[in-house]
Amino acid sequence: MRELKQIHTHIIKSPFLLEQDQSFLNTRLLFFCALSDSGSQTYAAGVFRVIKNPNLFLYNIMIRAYASKKANAFDEPASFRSLELYKQMVGDGIRPDCLTFPFLVKECTARMDCGNGRSVHGQVVKYGFRKDMFVQNSLMSMYSVFGSLICARKVFDEMTERDVVSWNSMIKGYLRSGDLDGAIEVVEGVRPDKITIASVLAACAHLGAVDNGTWVHGYLRRSGVESDVVIGTALVDMYVFALHGFGNEAFDLFEKMEAAGVEPNHVTFVGLLSACAHSGLVEKGRWCFDVMRRVYLIEPQLYHYACMVDILSRAGLIEEAERLIRSMPMKPDVYVWGALLGGCQIHGQVEIGEMAAHRLIDMEPLNHAFYVNLCDIYAKTGRFNDVKTVQSQMKERGIKKEVAGCSMIEVDGVVLEFSVRGSPDIVLNKIAIGALDTADENWESKGVFDEIERKVTTSCVRQLVMKILFSENLARTKDCVRRKQDTILLLELP
């Protein structure tokens, strides 16, 4: 920037530059300052302020610069600079073009500002860009991120022309909202690109929808889509992250990739290491970690270490996992410490679990999950005073667990979600109330039942009830479930 400022000074002071040349040079300087990683947005704003009668191109540069800047969590709503600049531009009588709106939509999306997003959509309609594919793609993506799938689909249906980005955005919108059926319906109607196919496979894995994932695998064969490293890795991930315990199948796919001459990349090994973690294949995990470095010359990154720590922690090798973390050449992130904490929670390793939880809380002090996990470790070992202390910290910091945990299974091609909050109160309470009343009578007679212990016991009983319902519905799915919108609700058993 020092050299750039010197150049700017020459542009301003030089008596030999025509006004037209000076304007051109100022435009190039503004472009660099506003959009280059080596530039300065503050300096760009200063340059923009002294330009007389800026045109649409200059406004678009600054709007893009503000929209590309990462939103600050402490910014006030009034600091929505790109929108303020847009209003100034329109006030100056300059009409926006098809490049202006995607930048505004991008910042609304980044800020999760649905209100201003809808206002920008109104401006799109006002200025006649409803048929512009570039603008409509950005709006569809924004509504998908907001979870407004109906609005996203309305934009999609009104488009007179669509490209692969349009189809990909709609498919990803369905996937983001958990509507796998909708995503596959769109896939059936178009030839999506490899990235979209990989996204669908990732969603199948996340939802545990192995039947749908197998359908996509078959679609790949029928459609003749080339199985390169992107598709091959996505298939490995699907069979791995679906958590079906198909670890050996993942390695079979890996061998086929090698036989086909497709060289694995770092993502492939993330999939294989995750397969080892979820299938309990400790030795294969160690083999993967070694082969990745020794044979394929891929240096392990944070996510590889996180997977390896997960493998060891799940297997109860907590001390070995901790040693691996301390040997890492880079600073462990939340995923690495989180994997260790999860293992400590499973195997009751209080001391190391406590250390891991405090590391995580230092890194993300507002993340409720770490406090909840620490409370669980304390509660399982009867350290209820420590549970109270952690809960007091959460209360002081205004931290609450907003989303209930859930489990998902796939039966007859349908993904069923089981959540304590999403369960029928009648069924749950009939079982839970009786169990809790019995616990009250037994524990109150011993004089050891206080509020915190009751909360822990209530939670345990409700978890037990969910396990009963989960198992029962595996056997009685067709009689006990119905679909309501995007959620599977359990019906009361007769």
Proportion of helical residues:
55-70%
Strand content: under 5%
Widest sheet: strand order?
1-2
Tertiary shape: globular
Mean pLDDT: 76
Number of helices: 26
Total beta strands: 4
Identify low-pLDDT runs: 70-78, 422-432, 443-449, 476-494
* H and E order: HHHHHHHHHHHHHHHHHHHHHHHEEHHHEE
Radius of gyration: 28 Å
N-to-C span:
75 Å
Description:
With 494 residues, the protein is mostly helical. It is 69% helix and 4% strand. It has 26 helices and four strands. The protein has helices at residues 2-13, 19-35, 41-50, 56-68, 81-91, 100-110, 114-126, 133-146, 149-158, 164-176, 180-188, 194-207, 210-223, 229-241, 247-259, 266-279, 282-294, 302-314, 318-326, 334-347, 350-363, 368-380, 384-396, 425-446, 451-475, 477-480, and strands spanning 406-411, 414-419, 481-484, 487-490. The strands form two sheets. It has a two-stranded antiparallel ribbon. A two-stranded antiparallel sheet has the order 3-4. A hairpin with a 2-residue loop joins strand 1 (406-411) and strand 2 (414-419). Helix 16 packs antiparallel against helix 17 (282-294). The radius of gyration is 28 Å and the shape is globular.
